[in-house]
Specification:
single chain, 246 residues, alpha/beta, Rossmann fold, 6-stranded parallel sheet, 9 helices, 6 strands, globular
């Protein structure tokens, strides 16, 4: 599934799911903009991509701040070319009882997980419209499909991503642009390991009796970015080991 002559942007590409997606898209031939707040993490992802003989560059900034978005996209276009593929992966999580979620925490969750991807997608859409070709892939969450105790702010922010996917897919389907989202199930990442969850115990309770790996999400991302998925849009493409069955 060749992505030669395509430029892919992966937010949150400095670790976890974003790193895996960036590496896989580069393996498939795309020039990858690895975008993260963590300069060291972004640089390490680029080193891993270049070690395999593929092309990438690191960009450090806030993917939910319009000023950073405008500045970084200008650099990406100058250095790698117009954006063909956007993977909106950057996000945060949080655990708190509903009655204890402060407005500030709610606003921050929504700004990073929903408003940022909305603005960034608006900003790259002209590139895709000009090319009459584009792939937008949001990373949502299976928590948005099932609900999650003590995660009302997180799961609702990701639910907004699922609704945004459907709206954009309908609006741009005739323009050569597909829009889909991947709601990961229980994936073993640094973010998961740092959460107040017994990772091994939860994995044992899952249908497959194991946690997923970042590469599982990366494989789905690469497929949705490819020509093989040209007739797939508006979909919630579950990669969850059977946690959510539709």
């Amino acid at each position: 599934m060749s992505l030669k002559h395509k430029t892919a942007v992966v937010t949150g590409g400095g670790s976890g799911l974003g790193r895996a997606c960036a590496i896989q898209l580069a393996r498939d031939g795309a020039a990858v903009a690895v975008w993260d707040l963590n300069a060291n993490g972004a640089a390490e992802t680029v080193r891993m991509i270049e070690a395999e003989g593929n092309r990438a560059a690191a960009y450090v900034g806030d993917a939910a701040a319009k000023a950073d978005i405008d500045k970084i996209l200008a650099r990406i276009r100058a250095e790698l070319g117009p954006v063909s593929i956007l993977v909106n992966n950057a996000g945060i999580t949080g655990f708190s009882p509903f009655l204890e979620i402060a407005e500030e925490a709610l606003q921050r969750m929504y700004r990073i997980n929903l408003v940022g991807p909305f603005i960034l997608t608006q900003s790259v859409m002209p590139d895709m419209l000009a090319a009459a070709w584009g792939r937008i892939i949001f990373i949502s969450s299976s928590s948005a499909q099932t609900g999650a105790i003590n995660m009302a702010h997180y799961s609702s922010s990701k639910g907004g991503i699922i609704a945004l996917t459907k709206s954009l897919a309908r609006e741009f389907a005739a323009r050569g642009i597909t829009v889909n989202n991947i709601p990961p199930g229980f994936i073993d990442t640094p973010m998961t390991r740092s959460s107040p969850i017994d990772v091994d115990a939860v994995a044992e309770e899952s249908p497959m009796k194991r946690a997923g790996q970042p590469q599982d999400i990366a494989a789905a991302c690469a497929f949705l970015a490819s020509e093989a998925a040209s007739y797939i849009t508006g979909q919630t493409f579950g990669v969850n080991g059977g946690r959510v069955i539709s």
